[in-house]
Amino acid sequence: MPELPEVETTVRGLAGVLQDDVLTGVAVNRADLRRPFPPDLAQVLIGARVTGLSRRAKYGLIHTDRDATMIFHLGMSGRWRIDPTAIEKHDHLVLETGRGHVLALNDARRFGSVDLVDTPLLDQWPAFAALGPEPLGPGLTSAHLATAFKDRVAAIKLLLLDQRIVAGLGNIYVCEALHRAGIHPEREAGKVSRAALNRLVPQIRDVLEESIAAGGSTLRDYARPDGELGYFAKDWRVYGREGEPCACGGVVERVVQGGRSTFFCRKCQR
After folding, report:
1. Distances from the Cα of 223 to the Cα of 6, 124, 226, angstroms
2. Beta bridge pairs of residue 255
3. Could you tell me which residues come within 8 angstroms of residue 6 by beta carbon, excluding any fewer than 6 positions away?
4. CB of 239 within 8 A of CB of 263?
5. Straight-line distance from the first to the last Cα atom of the chain, in angstroms, rounded to the nearest whole number
6. pLDDT band (50, 70, 90) for residue 223
7. How many CA atoms lie within 13 A of 175 on its CB side?
8. Rounded CA gap, 239 and 178, in Å?
9. Active-site residue among 2, 5, 38, 135?
10. Of the listed 34, 187, 199, 260, which one is catalytic?
11. Are the beta carbons of 200 and 183 closer than 8 angstroms?
């Protein structure tokens, strides 16, 4: 599933062609993805000017001058194609702009979603209302994590994936950040020291920023809007490397936590 860096990369790619342009065409080529398309999507967006693009957690946001924001989630296999040579079977939403660009939301597995929300009410939208701070924003601090983890016996890996604690963190980048910070993923969150949390926060930011700079990590169908693949996977230190040597001389192991694979090194993560 595309994670935060992949969504951020997508939003930045879309901004290069959508910012300050007018939407002149909106074609919905099927009734639904994970849930139905908004029935008034075309009516609201056609003629609207795009005033900005942003990201919240793993959602991309396209803001317009009509105080309406289109929110998209890429699901398992979603991706935007910019100026495709032809519209394909799985291009379920197609946007046209005044400058002549065509943008197609392609989602073969249809686990993505598109919503339309009044811009002033974004923070109250149910999917956003309970989200924690953005990991790249000022709200993520060791003090915030210490408060969220206080007296919690759940594993730190599982709580970092809780979107109510930190918005947008996914499995790959939690594994990588915990490894860089030297924290065992099965440690009880309430017993992780403040010193360890002080190490963890900058490592979370670093691993996300490095992945964004590399265009994200390619998993299955993910590609950037320009069609290029993300290349951060080659820099994974533990994720997907079960049985391979760790830089510390240990061996990368895999366990299952909450139904997801966790990769770590027992020697350097305590």
Report:
1. 8, 31, 8
2. 262
3. 74, 216, 217, 222, 230
4. yes
5. 28
6. very low
7. 26
8. 11
9. 2
10. 260
11. yes
Q: What are phi and psi of 28, to 5 degrees?
A: -100, 115
Q: Which helix (H) or strand (E) holds 47?
A: none
User: Does the annotation count 2 as an active-site position?
Assistant: yes
Give the model confidence (pLDDT) of 185-203 as tens digits. 999 999 999 999 999 999 9
Choice among 3, 6, 8, 134 that is catalytic: 3
DSSP 249: S
Residue 3 annotated as catalytic: yes
For 127-148, write each residue's pLDDT tens digit.
999 999 999 999 999 999 999 9
Work out whether the CA dihedral 44, 50, 54, 55 comes out positive or negative.
Answer: positive
Instruction: Say which of 5, 38, 55, 58 is annotated catalytic.
Output: 58
Q: Whole-prediction pTM value? A: 0.90
Output phi, psi for 55, to 5 deg. Answer: -135, 140
